[in-house]
Every structure is written in structure tokens, then in C-alpha cells.
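Q: Convert this sequence to C-alpha cells.
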Amino acid sequence: MDIAIFSPSSLFFEEQDDVHTSVEETQRIRKALMVSSTQIMQIDITTSDYDDQEILENIAHNCSANDLPVIPHIKHTWGDKFPNSDPDWDLIIASDILLYVKQYPNLIQTITFLLKSYKPRERRTTVSQTGSDDTNVAGDVVLPWPAFLMSWRRRIGKEDESIFFNGCEKAGLEVNHIGSRVYCISLIENEESNECLKKEDSVQVSSGRK
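A:
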């Protein structure tokens, strides 16, 4: 499975994330997540952010601090021509990317390009348990492949949220709220095939219970 992480600097902070969580505990959690992703689950990870040397140094430093090899990185600014002409990620993860309203059209343009560039292999993956209705029998949220998974910790205005979500809809993107400030964005044209997959799962589950 291939994963791209956009705006990775917001995911690799060294400082304390939560008043109830120590710095040491936070670092252990992040290290466990990265190690399990790259080694145990055999996941290939690529990071991407705008062209800034400090960001590159921050990523390299945090990889080194966690005894991990430096992760491949792509320099890119929303809306610009993507450096990789043939990106092909199953899952794209982004954090805190809705801070600049003027960049929403460029952001949506890039998201659309990345999702449409995907070459079908396995068609779905799962994320941690939530209250979403789109779940399997294990209670995990089922995501389509490809998917753009995003979240943000900083509050933004409802009006700004609407500008982004309406822009996604006009661009042919479907946005599903799957957790607290966590959204899955996929191509609307894939919705019908995803529904067929759900029906196939239902048949398989029913057969397995007999």
C-alpha cells in the first residue's frame, strides 16, 4: 500500500500535543505508528509540502530521532503542476490544510488530480473505529481507494468550511465526515462501484454466517 502525507510538518511536532500526554509518550506513539506502517505493514510512505528547507530539515530530524530512514519527499505548492507526472497513492493523508481560504481552489485542483491519477489495484482500506454508518462487521470505517483523508486541529469558521466543501462538490468530489474533524474525500464517479463492493461484502458475510 502506498501512502502520501501532505503538510507532514503538522504531524511531526516534538512538543507536547495534549496537556494530559507527556512528550515522551507522544514520541513513543508516533514512533510505533511509523514503524508499524513502514516495516510491519509494508507500507511505502511519501511526504509532500511546499518548497521550504526548514520543512525538509524538520522531517529528516524527526525521522532520525525515531531511528527511521529519511522518507521520500516531494516539493509542491497547491495548484502548481505536480512534480511527479504519474502519482499513484492508495491513500493521501493531510493535516491542517484549510487555513488559507484563497488557496481552496488550488487545493481542490490538486486533490482532484491526485485522485484521478490513481491506477486501480485493491479498491478499499479501513481506518480506526468510529461512529460512521459506512462500516464493516468489525466496526471499521471502510474507505474507497483512492481516498484523500484529512483532519485539522485548529478551528475554522463554518463559512470557510462551506466554501471548501461546496468547491469539492462542484469539482466532482464526495466528502464524507467520518470522525471529529476528520473527512474522507473521494471521486463521486467511484461511488457506484463502491456501493457494489458493499453489496458483495454483505453477501459474503451472510454466506459466512450460514
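The CA atoms of residues 40 and 159 lie 42 Å apart.
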